[in-house]
Write a structure and sequence with these properties.
Layout: E1 6-11, E2 16-23, E3 27-35, H1 37-41, H2 48-69, E4 79-85, H3 89-106, E5 110-114, H4 115-121, E6 142-147, E7 152-159, E8 162-168, H5 174-184, H6 191-199, H7 223-234, H8 242-270, E9 276-279, H9 286-295, E10 300-301, H10 305-308, H11 313-324
Parallel strand pairs: 1-4, 4-5, 6-9, 9-10
Antiparallel strand pairs: 1-2, 2-3, 6-7, 7-8
Helix pairs in contact: 2-3, 4-11, 5-6, 5-7, 5-8, 6-8, 7-8, 8-9
Bound molecules: 5'-O-[(R)-(carboxyoxy)(hydroxy)phosphoryl]adenosine (KG4) and zinc ion.
Length: 342
């Protein structure tokens, strides 16, 4: 076992082309992210065909930059890893095939990484940012709230690689709800950061949007909330602007965060978790961070912004645990667009 293993990790599951070199599962030797957000903004969402073509263009320069910034050569690496699911198949294929080519060409082991598990492992990266845990502080069991563009799940993590699914969304993911409501409000894509910005000037109590508690389950449903925002927007003759827009954004954000925070806090208590880990793009949201920390009786950790949204450093941190456990992927490693964590 090489505890200081150095891994080149690739991430291409959606609309970020990313490569990172991670040492010992924690130390970030380099972290490069090329975002396609501007390419997709005009469509109001990720356009799969455009995404995979953009990954093809970006992947080699992004890998070269990650290797240069880490001051390493392929001979200095112990393994190559890539996200192989869940995500868009045409996008995943670019990262997986690049990793296969590099691993095969340099005689290195190959690892496939689950993108959802990688979001959790963003918490093991060494950073000194406020709200981050030092990895040594993380004691199992942990309660992970994974909230991204494609997923909203409450996961109990009892050890490395050991997960129990407590609940998840029955319809839209939290990030998807932010993106769809952003579009309803005439805000640019992605809706999450745009809604958060607009909400800063708004009154979260101006409209009492419905909260879907689904009795005492740990599942979520956000489609009713999205419809309620649509109906409210339709009350206006012109698309709301200024204060009414800020108030709607703040009220929507408060409704979604209320449910996410309350369920995460309750699950942490019920299962005796030592901490709540906020994971995925929506955990970049400051209001979610504050509300979750207020509600939970245990510490709530969140990665620095760059490690909340898609990146390859988290993929490297996750790959390291599998590498350490002796796992290796075969050359037939395939993409799994619908892969689940549990
Ligand atoms: O994890 P991520 O980068 O990609 C997926 O794996 O899906 O998450 C992207 C999602 C988008 O839906 C985006 O609107 C949301 O994260 N997001 C936010 C914020 N920043 C990104 N949602 C709310 N507030 C934010 N500040
Ligand atoms: Zn993600």
């Amino acid at each position: 076992m090489n505890s200081g293993a150095r891994i080149l990790a690739l991430e291409t599951s959606c609309d970020e082309t990313a490569a990172a070199v991670i040492e010992g599962g924690r130390r970030i030797a380099s972290n490069v992210v090329a975002s396609q957000v501007e390419l997709h903004a005009r469509y109001g969402g990720v356009y799969p065909e455009i995404a995979s073509r953009a990954h093809i263009e970006a992947i080699v320069p992004v890998i070269e930059q990650a290797m240069q910034e880490a001051h390493v050569d392929f001979g200095d690496l112990d393994a190559v890893a890539a996200t192989n699911g869940p995500g868009l198949s045409g996008s995943l294929l670019v990262g997986v095939n690049a990793a296969k080519g590099l691993a095969m060409g340099s005689g290195l082991p190959l690892l496939g990484v689950n993108h959802l598990e990688a979001h959790i492992y963003a918490h093991w990266l060494e950073t000194d940012s406020e709200g981050s845990a030092w990895p040594a502080e993380l004691e199992f069991p942990l309660l992970a709230l994974i909230v991204s563009g494609g997923h909203s799940e409450l996961i109990l993590m009892s050890d490395h690689g050991r997960y129990e699914y407590l609940g998840g969304t029955l319809d839209d993911a939290a990030g998807e709800a932010f993106d769809k409501v952003g579009r309803l409000l005439g805000l640019p894509y992605p809706g999450g950061p745009a809604i958060e910005k607009a909400a800063r000037e708004g009154d979260p109590e101006s409209t009492a949007f419905p909260r879907s508690w689904l009795s005492d389950s740990y599942d979520f449903s956000f489609s009713g909330l999205k419809t309620a925002v649509l109906m409210k927007v339709q009350e206006y003759e012109e698309p709301p602007q200024g204060q009414p827009l800020a108030d709607l954004a703040a009220s929507f954000q408060a409704a979604i965060i209320d449910v996410l925070s309350a369920k995460a806090a309750r699950a942490a208590e019920e299962y005796g978790a030592s901490a709540v880990l906020l994971c995925g793009g929506v955990s970049a949201n400051q209001a979610l961070r504050h509300t979750a920390a207020e509600r939970a009786s245990v510490p709530v950790y969140y990665p620095p912004l760059v490690f909340c949204t898609d990146n390859a450093a988290m993929v490297g941190a996750c790959a390291y645990q599998h590498y350490r456990a002796g796992e290796r992927a075969g050359w037939d490693l395939d993409v799994l667009p619908g892969l689940r964590l549990v």
